[in-house]
Specification:
Low-confidence stretches of chain B: none
Mean pLDDT of chain A: 95
Structural class of chain A: alpha/beta
Distance between the termini of chain B: 63 Å
Oligomer: heterodimer
Largest sheet of chain B: 11 strands, mixed
Largest sheet of chain A: 8 strands, parallel
Largest interface: A-B, 52 and 48 residues
Mean pLDDT of chain B: 95
Low-confidence stretches of chain A: none
Helix content of chain B: 10-25%
Number of strands of chain A: 21
Strand order of the largest sheet of chain A: 9-19-18-16-15-12-11-10
Strand order of the largest sheet of chain B: 1-2-3-4-5-6-7-8-9-11-10
Radius of gyration of chain B: 18 Å
Shape of chain A: globular
Order of helices and strands of chain B: EHEEEEEEEEEHHEE
Strand content of chain A: 15-25%
Structural class of chain B: alpha/beta
Chain lengths: 501, 240
């Protein structure tokens, strides 16, 4: 052992009375934890490789395995928790930038959990969605502000392009490369089943998935990987990625070792070469420049596609959103600081940006104050975990939400947060063929459809409870929310009253 | 089809072009109209005057000939086709272009050829007859950039040429080199490099009526990156 030795944070507990020595755990473990002792043939575990992905636990036929946090501990210290100490060891040993996966695991306030939803009593009776029609279909895009008629008095119906969704939930951007072919197949098919959209991320669109175009949002990021006219015209909408909640202000980097044949073809870059997305779009230095990219995409697609501009929730998000709304974009996607990622520098993931709840409320209010709220729709993302979060997001002003982590969980992710290793034992964040094959696209598709169908029903139940039968009547309806345990400042920003008021 | 662009705004002009069934499009008296030939394929454009930003953005196979100067983002994210500029060109020319060729008779502004990339049989080409501004070939991932400095200013490119470059090649004509980032490999063009360059220069000289032998009769330097995986050692895994 050495100065830098980091004791395995998780222990593999094998119940000898239950274990039937079948060895399934060996085959299931993607990181090579389980093995047989060369002399005795007994099952052993090298816990230093364990990432607590729960794969062996789920596949052990006799429930003989569990993974538990170790009780080994540094001397207790409030200022220097084990996490901080081990991070220093890692950097002192390597000189590297700390790189983490998925959304921040730090204990920042989750405002969703401090907001409570209203329900009708006595007056304005609740509505039962099982009996009565309930509308959760949304149209994202610019809405006309006035009624115009031609010389003969007939209505002029030149509505800008709209993105129609049967329910206000979209799958957020996850590139082919960061996740597997099978995961993309499941997302694309589930989006079609559900009447919503998935998002290609910045990795291009695989030739097999052009068929799902009407349910696809194609992304244009700073690296412009895989962006060409067929790609732009394939999707239902085009998203310009300016930023991402997990790593505001920095670019992306797919290491060359992950750029295999299929990914190379989809991104249109050579095999084995790094795929670097610079932090800025180098043709955008202002809102006027952003307008040019929006306009050029519209010209290239003959004004048929709504354009989304995705930004991370940062300090001046309200002013930024106001600029975007004036840039000609049809939809703004705001990604909060708890949003997920395949890999982000730990310090940026855990310290840069602001929570989506505050950003969303601030943006909605600002756009209303400026009288331009109808010029854009808003998609909120960055840790929407349940239909309750969804209802609260819509009441704070979102037209729809993006879900990424929740969708991955539905497909089998156990949030072990080692996506960057490329050894996802659930076949999601990996390109290794044997691991990818573990994810059955049809099963994953069913589970995604189940999740969103259930959320949509829960959404209708909660809307019905409030006496609301149309999602438009919930959007920005902050009277339907009350805060608990929040300061007056927080309540002011959220635009909600305290419970009891 | 010949269109007089005077007093036409960009959307109108682009709509006329889009609606035309003609393969050959000629536009006169351009005055900053944007996004011409944007995403276009299978057509031939002759443009006179000054086309605005985003000329040939996402270009997908058309040929564009400009008699005049161009503004920003020419050939941005271009996939295929040819753009010939009988004049000079603004910033971010050929940004992220993946294929096709851009020939500029005069100078080009900042950030030309930034994030240019090649893929299979696609190898983008940017040739500049005059000089280039700073950040030429920044993040270049593939393809070829040639700067000729035919007027012999002695400073073919500005600062930070090839910054963050991780693929492709830059040829600079002349005996003087600018200060370059550490991670670039610089050499004088050898016989193999010149053999690669010669057909490129033949195309350029043919387009602009120049004497190829005279253009070639000068030292050339070749800039390439020292790694296709520049950030491999940058990170350490932190599972938290």
């Amino acid at each position: 052992m050495s100065l830098d030795y980091i004791y395995p944070p998780y222990e593999v507990v094998r119940n000898a009375q239950r274990c039937v020595d079948c060895g399934i755990c060996i085959g299931q473990c993607a990181t090579g934890v389980h093995f047989r002792d060369k002399k005795t043939g007994a099952l052993r575990a090298d816990e230093s490789k364990c990432v607590d992905c729960q794969r062996c636990v789920c596949f052990c036929p006799t429930h003989a395995l569990k993974i538990v946090p170790t009780d080994n501990a540094f001397r207790n210290n409030g200022n220097w928790p084990a996490r901080t100490i081990t991070e220093i060891y890692r950097q002192a040993a390597s000189g590297g930038v700390l790189l983490s996966s998925m959304g921040s695991s730090k204990d920042y306030p989750i405002y969703w959990d401090k907001l409570l939803i209203n329900a009708s009593q006595v007056t304005n009776p609740p509505i039962d969605p099982l009996r009565e029609p309930m509308e959760t279909r949304v149209f994202l895009g610019k809405k006309p502000t006035d009624v115009r008629r031609d010389a003969e008095g007939k209505l002029i119906c030149d509505l800008p392009p709209q993105l129609e969704l049967k329910l206000p939930i979209l799958f957020s951007a996850m590139s082919y490369g960061s996740i597997s072919y099978n995961a993309h197949a499941a997302l694309a098919q589930a989006a079609r089943d559900l009447g919503t959209c998935y998002n290609t991320g910045e990795g291009g669109l695989h030739e097999d998935f052009y068929a799902y175009g009407p349910n696809t949002i194609v992304q244009v990021a700073s690296g412009r990987f895989g962006v060409h006219t067929d790609y732009l015209n394939a999707g239902a909408a085009i998203e310009i990625k300016m930023g991402q909640g997990a790593k505001p202000g920095i670019g992306g980097h797919l290491p060359g070792k992950k750029v295999n044949g299929d990914i190379s073809r989809t991104r249109m870059i050579p095999e084995g070469a790094d795929a670097i997305s610079p932090a800025p779009h180098h043709d955008i230095y202002s809102i006027e420049d952003l307008r040019q990219l929006v306009d050029s995409l519209k010209v290239a697609t003959n004004y048929q596609k709504p354009v989304i501009v995705k930004v991370a929730a940062v300090h001046n998000i309200a002013a930024i959103a106001s600029g975007i709304a004036r840039s000609g974009a049809d939809i703004i996607a705001i990604d909060g600081m708890r949003g997920g990622t395949g890999a982000a520098p730990t310090r940026i993931r855990d310290n840069v940006g602001i929570p989506i709840e505050l950003a969303l409320a601030a943006v909605d209010q600002r756009l209303r104050d400026e009288g331009i709220r109808d010029q854009v729709s808003i998609i909120a993302g960055g840790s929407i975990r349940s239909s309750a979060d969804l209802v609260k997001a819509i009441a704070l002003g979102a037209d729809a939400v993006y879900i990424g982590t929740a969708a991955l969980l539905a497909m089998g992710c156990h949030l072990c947060r080692t996506c960057q290793s490329g050894l996802c034992s659930w076949g999601i964040a990996t390109q290794r063929e044997d691991l990818v094959a573990r994810l059955d696209p049809q099963e994953a598709r069913r589970r995604l459809v189940h999740l969103l169908t259930a959320w949509d029903h829960e959404l209708k139940e909660m809307m019905g409870g409030m006496g609301i039968n149309s999602i438009e009547a919930l959007r920005g309806n902050r009277l339907m929310l009350r805060g608990v345990g929040l300061t007056q400042k927080e309540l002011d920003i959220l635009g909600v009253r305290h419970a009891g008021e | 089809m010949v269109i007089q662009a005077k007093n036409l705004l960009s959307p109108q002009l682009n709509e006329y072009i889009r609606a035309s069934a003609d393969r050959d499009i000629e536009v006169d008296a351009l005055f900053g109209q944007r996004y011409l030939a944007c995403g276009s394929s299978g057509r031939h454009f002759i443009l006179r005057g000054t086309p605005g930003n985003g000329l040939g953005q996402y270009l997908n196979g058309s040929t564009v000939e400009v008699y005049g100067n161009c503004q920003e983002a020419v050939g941005d994210t271009m996939n295929e086709g040819t753009i010939v500029i009988h004049g000079s060109c603004g910033d971010a020319c050929g940004y992220a272009m993946r294929g096709g060729s851009i020939f500029i008779e005069g100078n080009v502004g900042y950030r030309a050829g930034i994030h240019m990339k090649s893929y299979l049989d696609k190898a983008p080409l940017l040739v500049v007859g005059g000089t280039a501004g700073s950040f030429l070939g920044e993040y270049q991932a593939g393809g070829t950039i040639v700067v000729l400095d035919l007027d012999g200013t002695g400073t073919p490119v500005g600062n930070f040429c090839g910054m963050g470059m991780y693929g492709g090649k830059i040829f600079l004509r002349g005996d003087r080199l600018p200060a370059l980032p550490d991670r670039l490999l610089v050499r004088e063009a050898d016989a193999a490099d010149r053999a690669e360059l010669s057909p490129i220069l033949a195309q350029f000289c043919d387009r602009f009526g120049l004497d190829q032998a005279k253009v070639e009769d000068a030292p050339f330097h070749v800039l390439t990156p020292d790694s296709a995986n520049p950030y491999r050692q940058l990170y350490v895994t932190n599972i938290v």
